[in-house]
Amino acid sequence: MIRDLPFRPRPEIAAVQEANFAAMLDLVFARHPYYRRVFSERGLRREHIRGLQDIHLIPVIAKADYAAEPEAFRLESDGLPQEATIGWDVMHTTGTSGGRPTPFHSTTHDFYNTLTANRRALELRGVRDSDVIANLCPMTLYPYGAYHRTIAAANAMKLPVISPLPGRPSPGFHWSAGLDEVVAAVERARATILWGVTSYVRRVLMRAGETGADFSTVRLAFVTGEPVSDAMRADITRRMAALGAADPWVSVSYAATEMQVGAVECCPGSGYHNPAPDHFFFEVVEPATHAPLPHGTPGLAVMTHLDRRGTVLLRYSLGDITALTHEPCPHCGATTDRFTLSPARADHLVKVRGMLFDPAAVEDMLLADPRVAEFQLVVERSDPDDPLSMDLLELRLALVEGTEADAPAALAEAVRQKTGVRPVPRAVPIAAIFDPERALKARRFVDNRKGGMP
Questions:
Q1: Of 288, 316, 345, which closes a domain?
Q2: CA 444 centroid distance within chain
Q3: Residue 320 belongs to what H/E stretch?
Q4: Residue 107: inside a domain, yes or no?
Q5: N or C: which end of the chain has fewer CB within 10 A?
Q6: Do 334 and 358 sit in the same domain of this protein?
Q7: Which residues are paired to 340 by β-bridges?
Q8: CA-to-CA distance for 73 and 9, rounded, in angstroms?
Q9: Which of 205, 231, 264 is where one domain is finished?
């Protein structure tokens, strides 16, 4: 392990990646049920893949391929060193297999690597040894990476971490914290970093402002799990400053369960740095043909594990459109690869009444409006039993107290100008849109049409 690998010269990083890829392929050809079968069907032998220059010979797979048979993606570990044979934990990712989240298995070997990757990510983000982390990720029924790996990251850097346990996973869990209890815990711990899902971190800050809580020690917000627009970043930063934070900023990570860490910003707009180029090899490919694209060209993000012993994925589509560079970061000097565009889902455009529009563009506009505390766009059929009936678009608005009565109509007209579709506005309490006692992520776009977005 080279502790500062993200800052080493590119040839050194490339050499480590080539060596790890070769060792990973040796294990995959011998011990990976899924790829062994696929390679056999394609007549692909180990000697055909001489290095990363031949990685295109391996087919790109989608989450659906992995979710369909997740156990087939686990290495057969008998006879490997002990750390590779011990099951450390199982996280779960979205997508279902038999109606259940897809399991992602880590061995002790993998968890040791996860600690390394997460420590490097904290260092890239400018975390100090005096920081205190508030883990605002929820307790859930199925273990998932954000909650557990936030704690692991703090441990790897020897930092105190408080986990207030928001979330109500089941009637059998008795220690969940409501919003006010979470705010009180952050204040009591004198936390300097808030770490969680974007919309929940924002809601905690909003409640802190409403109750007059002392959040003056908070200097960073680490957010993940949702797209973060410029308007959202500005809103969270403004709320931290209003609570007394000096020079606060928001650090966004591009994370996936299949990574157990995030590609992170060193400062706003820096791009998302790969903290572990010895563990992950990223590509950007043409979405339809999967042909490699030059650095800087937007395309589909694809990840290959270079050093895993549990669940192993090669050329796995992360499902997002972004761009990649190997140029040194102009802000921190890191030479590791970076995603330079905010990742956007490959299927982010939505058609309503024959018009294609981007919900994220509406989100930017409404979040930047000082009258809006929270909102939700809901699409449904005028007749739920008739799939051919007309689309209805409703704009649910929780408005800041004292907002003028004609604001809903004005905001609906602004959405029409942005999208070409005028929604029906409806003022509702904020809890009707986003109740942090029941959910940890705001759903700002809901498609209730059959076959629509979940």
A1: 345
A2: 16
A3: strand 316-322
A4: yes
A5: C
A6: no
A7: none
A8: 33
A9: 264
In whole angstroms, give the CA distance from residue 185 to residue 189: 6
Instruction: Give me the long-range contacts of 96-104 (CB less than 8 A, separation at least 24).
Output: 96/67, 97/67, 97/68, 97/69, 97/70, 100/142, 101/142, 101/144, 102/63, 102/66, 102/67, 102/70, 103/70, 103/71, 103/311, 104/70, 104/145, 104/257, 104/258, 104/260, 104/310, 104/311
CA distance 318 to 301: 6
> In which element (H, E) is residue 150 found?
helix 145-156
The rounded distance, in Å, linking the Cα atoms of 165 and 239 is 23
Q: Which residues contact 53 (CB under 8 A, 6 or more apart)?
A: none
The CA-based angle 78-83-87, given to 5 degrees, is: 75
> Which amino acid, residue 303?
M
| CATH code, domain with 370 | 3.30.300.30
Residue 99 has pLDDT above 60, yes or no: no
Please write the tens of the pLDDT for every residue from 205-259: 999 999 999 999 999 999 998 778 888 899 999 999 999 998 999 999 999 999 9
3-state secondary structure of 281: strand
Using one digit for the tens of pLDDT, what is the confidence trace for 303-362? 999 999 999 999 999 989 999 999 999 999 999 999 999 888 776 667 776 666 778 778
**Measured between alpha carbons, how far is 120 from 228 in angstroms, rounded to an integer?**
22
Mean pLDDT computed over 141-167: 93
Residue numbers of the domain that contains 336 = 5-111+271-345
pLDDT in tens, 424-450: 999 999 999 988 777 767 888 898 886
Provide the pairing of β-strand 344-345 with 338-339: unpaired
Q: Answer whether residue 395 shows pLDDT above 70.
A: yes
Q: Are residues 80 and 207 in the same domain?
A: no
Same domain, residue pair 338 and 354: no
Task: Quote the tokens at residue 383.
Answer: 């007749």
Integer Cα distance of 334 and 319 in angstroms: 26
Query: pTM for the whole thing?
Result: 0.82
Q: Considering only 33-37, 178-182, 192-196, 351-355, which range has the smallest mean pLDDT?
A: 351-355
Q: What is the DSSP letter of 346?
A: T
Return d(Cα 424, Cα 426) in angstroms, integer: 7
